[in-house]
Design goal:
Length: 191
């Protein structure tokens, strides 16, 4: 599932960093993700802002969550130079128990929810090169960083914001397509 830059939705407001600097927002995109851990994981989609990330974003939160960008192509579509990746000296273990080589990590700002109930934080992303219908996995550390609660039955993630409870809902059809594609890919042998 390739996401061309033309699919980015326009964003008509500036993003301001914690240091007060304006951040160039390229657009917004809705990506399917898995939230939680097996067997209680949610298959949902969330809106993410795609931004030009200045170097001042490398230490905004002390202990952020970890999100895994499943394909290097998803990372490259953000037009962030590969030189910005920090080295990672440990492998990931996939859901099938296989070791997955990590290409690197990077801190990126994200926005969850919609105005006025949105949450803007910076998270660590691990970049791996694994075929998947999901572009990112939001695991337990990411859920904790958002202080979120997922409801697989309602296909929603709720999280606290300064202006009340924020939420990110999914489209059930998109969720089913991604899940079906993931099961199809899972049956194929990994190269």
């Amino acid at each position: 599932m390739e996401i061309p830059l033309e699919r980015l939705l326009p964003v008509d407001y500036p993003l301001v960093s914690f240091s007060g600097d304006l951040v160039s927002v390229k657009g917004s995109i809705r990506l399917p993700i898995r939230a939680g851990t097996y067997p209680r994981e949610s298959r949902i989609t969330m809106n993410f802002l795609v931004v030009d990330v200045p170097s001042s974003y490398n230490a905004l939160l002390g202990r952020p969550g970890m999100i895994v960008l499943r394909t290097r192509q998803a990372f490259q579509r953000m037009e962030i130079p590969l030189e910005r990746l920090l080295p990672v000296d440990y492998p990931l273990v996939s859901f099938s128990g296989d070791l997955v080589s990590v290409k690197g990590s990077i801190r990126l700002p994200i926005r969850a929810g919609t105005y006025p109930r949105e949450l803007r934080i910076t998270m660590n992303f691990l970049v791996v090169d694994v075929p998947s219908s999901y572009k990112a996995l939001l695991g337990r550390p990411g859920m904790i960083a958002l202080r979120s609660v997922s409801s697989p039955y309602h296909l929603v993630i709720n999280f606290p914001t300064p202006r009340g409870a924020g939420e990110s809902r999914t489209d059930q059809l998109v969720s089913r397509k991604c899940y079906s594609a993931e099961l199809t890919d899972f049956k194929k042998p990994v190269p």
